[in-house]
Specification:
Helix content is 14%, strand content 10%. The protein contains two helices and three strands, in the order E-E-H-E-H. Strands 2-1-3 form a three-stranded antiparallel sheet. A hairpin with a 5-residue loop joins strand 1 and strand 2. The radius of gyration is 12 Å and the shape is elongated.
């Protein structure tokens, strides 16, 4: 079951469970669309895997399996990965 992390690891933008602009890798590292496209080029900086659109869990399923509340953020953001 996906954790549905609540924020972008780069910029700390809120990404609620229904966010259509959330991207994840196979390890569930989570990024917003802006960082995924313009900073990371859709490559996870943690595992080098590809970033894909995170699925949206239906509201009824969220009641039984809520999203994570644990925020993860890179201490220095993702600027070192920014495209030149």
């Amino acid at each position: 079951m996906l954790m549905l992390k609540p924020n972008c690891e780069c910029c700390d933008k809120d990404l609620p469970p229904a966010a259509k602009d959330a991207y994840i890798c196979t390890y569930e590292c989570t990024f917003c669309a802006e960082c995924a496209a313009n900073v990371l080029n859709f490559v996870c900086p943690n595992c080098s895997g590809n970033l894909v659109s995170r699925p949206i869990r239906p509201i009824e399923a969220l009641k039984k399996h809520p999203a994570s509340t644990q925020r993860i953020i890179k201490p220095h953001g993702c600027d070192r990965y920014r495209k030149s």
